[in-house]
User: Which sequence fits this backbone?
């Protein structure tokens, strides 16, 4: 336990990767979107609702953070005698805590956007997005009626579901982070060639899937199914993928040299 | 006397290259061992295998009586300082010291900070901004302050100036006297560290050439200089490490006893001492491609 705590301390010491860089990225993208929407409003005369997909940038930063964490701390920790298993557990614990903290912050900002400072005064939809933040996810995810939702979640107002968004943000952030750790592990184990091979194979599999879907006309069924899903429900499919990603990462760096 | 490291028939090959070839040796507790050899001889590979950072292709390996891989009882007692040690990008010296305190159970915080003063390292500068010499000093500090029962230094002096090197040697000797521990040190600067070393392992092209007490080695090798005929008479049946022509004279480096020296002097040959470094150079010079030298 003490050894896992040492790994957690090592990860927590790297505030740059976990908090500072994502904060700056989020702040910069939000600031930019806000300015653009403001100029747009001034030119068009009056506030129009504008949806900015800037939040996607933030998720990419979390992915890159995962890669940097592994390639930065794994050789350091194992070089100084840390067990690979302890490294995995300590790193996952910190990643989980950090993703939870970010998910809470994103949900809070979404709530503020929808209820406190209405669309940041300029009609910008940045954190509170339809499908990701609206009431449907909680209802369908929890199989509850509107009234039941309101009872279960005190913040459930007018179709906004902080609980649903919290779940969505947390799972998706953790997924990106673990995907980053996995990519970092591939690099640690097989180097640059391993990365190329991974992306090559992933691209190939995806192409085959697309081809097969077209050949057997699965698209109608796929889109039909997707249309019925909610963001929180969809994102739940990532939970087993997160577990697989973490195990695959461990399987790779179990025998990686440093 | 307890054995800290026991290696039998250790082999590591990458594709067609054999980096470590059936190496066997043992390291006793509370002694300073020198692992000597040329670049690419396999020194670092052996050290990395001992610490489970690299995996052997064959052979048997016991550290503190157990296999080191994923074994906290073994790994928590080792500190391995290598020149390629990586640090997280955002880490400063102070972060490394604080983290090392968590990684190494025997860590001495005060000693670490005293060493920082002596080596004049900036505590708050990022590791990525340190010079080669400063990084080496940082590694040496971690190694010394870890007080790990088995401390392994892989060429700890790279880029260090003469003052810092002698600081390192002095600190190591002093700390070793106060807190006995097993030290395995690889180096090229053999003469500089020869006073520290108690045992010497010489490795060349992946094979162990020598495994001997330093004192025994120092006493046994010497060179004789004189006319070719006399030198050849003297060296007949002896283990000649190197034979060189010096004008009309011949110089031969041999392994022998004190009596052999006396005999050489009686024959009118000049007896010249051979430093440890010269001896290692002779042993590991390619054209000779020697087999292991027998030294009791």
Assistant:
């Amino acid at each position: 336990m003490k050894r896992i705590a040492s790994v957690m301390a090592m990860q927590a010491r790297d505030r740059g990767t976990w908090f500072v860089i994502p904060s700056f990225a989020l702040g910069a993208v939000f600031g930019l979107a806000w300015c653009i929407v403001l100029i747009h409003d001034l030119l068009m005369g009056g506030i129009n609702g504008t949806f900015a997909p800037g939040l996607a940038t933030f998720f990419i930063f979390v992915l890159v953070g995962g890669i940097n964490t592994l390639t930065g701390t794994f050789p350091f920790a194992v070089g100084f005698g840390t067990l690979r298993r302890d490294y995995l557990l300590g790193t996952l614990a910190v990643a989980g805590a950090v993703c939870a903290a970010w998910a809470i912050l994103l949900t809070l900002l979404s709530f503020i956007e929808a209820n406190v400072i209405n669309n940041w005064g300029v009609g910008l939809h940045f954190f509170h997005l339809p499908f990701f933040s609206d009431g449907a996810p909680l209802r369908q995810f929890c199989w509850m009626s509107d009234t039941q939702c309101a009872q279960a979640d005190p913040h459930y107002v007018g179709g906004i579901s902080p609980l649903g968004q919290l779940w969505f943000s947390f799972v998706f952030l953790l997924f990106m982070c673990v995907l980053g750790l996995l990519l970092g592990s591939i690099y640690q184990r097989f180097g640059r060639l391993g990365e190329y091979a991974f992306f090559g194979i992933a691209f190939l599999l995806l192409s085959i899937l697309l081809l097969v879907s077209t050949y057997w006309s699965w698209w109608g069924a796929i889109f039909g199914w997707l249309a019925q899903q909610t963001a929180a429900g969809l994102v739940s499919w990532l939970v087993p993928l997160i577990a697989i990603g973490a195990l695959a990462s461990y399987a790779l760096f179990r025998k990686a040299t440093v | 006397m307890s054995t800290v490291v026991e290696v039998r028939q250790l082999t590591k090959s990458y594709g067609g290259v054999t980096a470590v070839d059936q190496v066997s040796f043992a390291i006793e507790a509370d002694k300073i061992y020198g692992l000597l050899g040329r670049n690419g001889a396999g020194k670092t590979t052996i050290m990395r295998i001992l610490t489970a950072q690299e995996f052997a292709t064959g052979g048997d390996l016991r550290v503190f009586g157990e296999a080191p891989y994923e074994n906290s009882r073994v790994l928590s007692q080792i500190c391995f300082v290598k020149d390629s040690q990586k640090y997280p990008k955002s880490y400063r010296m102070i972060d490394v010291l604080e983290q090392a305190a968590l990684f190494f159970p025997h860590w001495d915080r005060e000693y670490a900070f005293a060493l920082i003063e002596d080596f004049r390292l900036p505590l708050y500068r990022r590791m990525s901004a340190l010079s080669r010499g400063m990084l080496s000093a940082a590694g040496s500090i971690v190694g010394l302050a870890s007080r790990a029962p088995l401390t392994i230094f892989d060429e700890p002096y790279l880029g260090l100036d003469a003052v810092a090197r002698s600081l390192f040697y002095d600190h190591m000797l002093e700390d070793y006297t106060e807190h006995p521990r097993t030290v395995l040190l690889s180096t090229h600067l053999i003469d500089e560290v020869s006073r520290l070393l108690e045992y010497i392992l010489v490795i060349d092209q992946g094979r162990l050439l020598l495994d001997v007490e330093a004192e025994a080695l120092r006493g046994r090798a010497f060179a004789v200089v004189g006319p070719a005929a006399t030198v050849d008479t003297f060296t007949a049946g002896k283990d000649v490490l190197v034979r060189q022509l010096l004008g009309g004279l011949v110089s031969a480096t041999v392994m022998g006893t004190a009596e052999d020296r006396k005999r050489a002097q009686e024959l009118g040959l000049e007896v010249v001492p051979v430093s440890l470094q010269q001896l290692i150079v002779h042993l590991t010079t390619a054209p000779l491609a020697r087999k292991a030298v027998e030294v009791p």
